[in-house]
UniProtKB/TrEMBL annotation:
Residues 49-131 form the Microcin J25-processing protein McjB C-terminal domain. This is Microcin J25-processing protein McjB C-terminal domain-containing protein.
């Protein structure tokens, strides 16, 4: 498990670096085109998760948090959520990327969900946000 965690640490670092480069180069258009119009990662049909999958999700979210905390760039919720979504999609886990906004004061936020349950944030942090983009809804998958 330790070896696997070390490998994931390296993979996640380079994934976040790539996401940061894409966001700097193409802005939000990169996110919208990749995950909400063309969705190259794909959306997995909802199902129950095994205990091993739950442990994997917890490990990945924890690693992403730690890497983003120490990342030399300016990583935010979007970096974290995209990285998690990409990893979980490759493992065919039914995790969704969600983006919400609040008008006053203007705030935008990204997070991951499983069956409407927030995974990488506290539900209190999402109060007042209106969901604008949701991978499951935009790509019409249940």
């Amino acid at each position: 498990m330790i070896f696997s965690k070390a490998i994931w640490h390296i993979k996640i670092y380079f994934l976040i670096k790539n996401i940061d480069n894409q966001l700097q180069k193409n802005g939000f258009k990169f996110v919208y085109d990749t995950y909400f119009t063309n969705n190259k990662a794909g959306v997995t049909k909802l199902r129950d998760l095994t205990s091993e999958e739950l442990e994997f999700i917890e490990m990945i979210i924890d690693l992403i948090e730690k890497i983003c905390l120490n990342f030399y760039g300016n990583t935010r919720c979007l970096h974290k959520s995209i990285a998690g979504y990409q990893i979980f999609s490759t493992k065919n886990l039914p995790i969704d990327l969600v983006i919400g906004v609040m008008k006053k004061p203007f705030t935008a936020h990204a997070w991951l969900e499983f069956n409407k349950q927030v995974l990488n944030d506290f539900p209190e942090n999402l109060e007042g946000l209106q969901v604008q983009l949701h991978t499951r809804k935009e790509n019409k998958v249940n």
